[in-house]
């Protein structure tokens, strides 16, 4: 694996990675989907494929902090409905990574994120009110859950970019702030932990990548506390706009690299 070690990274590059790790903590406890910016930073400093293996343990650390913060607000019927489709998406993403190079990975994920953001904005313009989370029990809701689940599993395996996809799904299902954050916290903790054997098998996680993680993971903690402080000061409309904006920014950055 061609992952850079801590000693091959300049001071400015380490500072950029540290900021990206802080942003992971913030996104996990405040604006889910904002970590697409972290994804872009890691892919800019490290080789794109290798960066996904370095970023995964940092995301898991953020997930643990998010679960501890919002564990009482998770909507488990939605989670159980999503997991089978997500598992299928992870398998497809693993097969994709076997042959895809960095350019294909970046272009594919960037295009998917922009498409999902466009679909979500179109749906929200047409609908005056959003469905309640329990509406996912309808036939249309089940189809939507499976579609987003497969896409979320694929994007999270390929580039740790499942956050925006699932954020858009939870917004479209009508989740409010705390339910959104609690459900996504458990979802990504379970999914990201399940990805570790796949990533290790592909050579994306090894001793060198974990050494770099050990130097960066501490920056996740202040980001999580900052997010917890900020989330109560962000109204629902602004919260949704920030999620969609973060998705668009992340998608454009991936396409332009």
From TrEMBL:
<feature type="transmembrane region" description="Helical">
    <location>
        <begin position="210"/>
        <end position="231"/>
    </location>
</feature>
<dbReference type="InterPro" id="IPR002781">
    <property type="entry name" value="TM_pro_TauE-like"/>
</dbReference>
<keyword id="KW-0472">Membrane</keyword>
<dbReference type="InterPro" id="IPR052017">
    <property type="entry name" value="TSUP"/>
</dbReference>
<feature type="transmembrane region" description="Helical">
    <location>
        <begin position="178"/>
        <end position="198"/>
    </location>
</feature>
<dbReference type="Pfam" id="PF01925">
    <property type="entry name" value="TauE"/>
</dbReference>
<feature type="transmembrane region" description="Helical">
    <location>
        <begin position="82"/>
        <end position="99"/>
    </location>
</feature>
<protein>
    <recommendedName>
        <fullName>Probable membrane transporter protein</fullName>
    </recommendedName>
</protein>
<feature type="transmembrane region" description="Helical">
    <location>
        <begin position="148"/>
        <end position="172"/>
    </location>
</feature>
<comment type="similarity">
    <text>Belongs to the 4-toluene sulfonate uptake permease (TSUP) (TC 2.A.102) family.</text>
</comment>
<keyword id="KW-1133">Transmembrane helix</keyword>
<feature type="transmembrane region" description="Helical">
    <location>
        <begin position="105"/>
        <end position="122"/>
    </location>
</feature>
<keyword id="KW-1003">Cell membrane</keyword>
<keyword id="KW-0813">Transport</keyword>
<keyword id="KW-0812">Transmembrane</keyword>
């Amino acid at each position: 694996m061609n992952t850079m070690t801590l000693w091959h990274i300049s001071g400015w590059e380490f500072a950029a990675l540290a900021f990206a790790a802080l942003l992971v903590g913030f996104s996990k406890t405040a604006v889910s989907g904002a970590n697409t910016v972290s994804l872009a930073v890691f892919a800019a400093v490290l080789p794109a494929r290798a960066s996904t293996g370095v970023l995964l343990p940092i995301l898991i650390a953020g997930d643990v902090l998010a679960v501890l913060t919002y564990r009482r607000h998770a909507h488990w019927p939605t989670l159980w409905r999503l997991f089978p489709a997500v598992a299928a998406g992870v398998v497809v993403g693993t097969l994709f990574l076997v042959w895809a190079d960095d350019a294909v990975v970046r272009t594919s994920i960037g295009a998917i994120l922009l498409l999902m953001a466009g679909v979500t904005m179109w749906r929200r313009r047409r609908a005056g009110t959003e469905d309640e989370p329990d509406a996912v029990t309808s036939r249309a809701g089940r189809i939507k859950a499976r579609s987003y689940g497969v896409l979320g599993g694929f994007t999270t395996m390929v580039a740790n970019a499942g956050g925006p996809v699932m954020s858009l799904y939870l917004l479209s299902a009508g989740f409010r702030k705390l339910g959104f954050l609690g459900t996504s916290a458990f979802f990504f903790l379970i999914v990201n932990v399940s990805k570790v054997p796949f990533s290790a098998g592909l050579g994306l996680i090894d001793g060198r990548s974990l050494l770099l993680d050990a130097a960066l993971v501490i920056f996740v903690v202040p980001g999580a506390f900052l997010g917890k402080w900020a989330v109560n000061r962000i109204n629902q409309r602004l919260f949704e706009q920030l999620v969609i904006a973060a998705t668009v920014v992340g998608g454009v950055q991936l396409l332009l690299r």
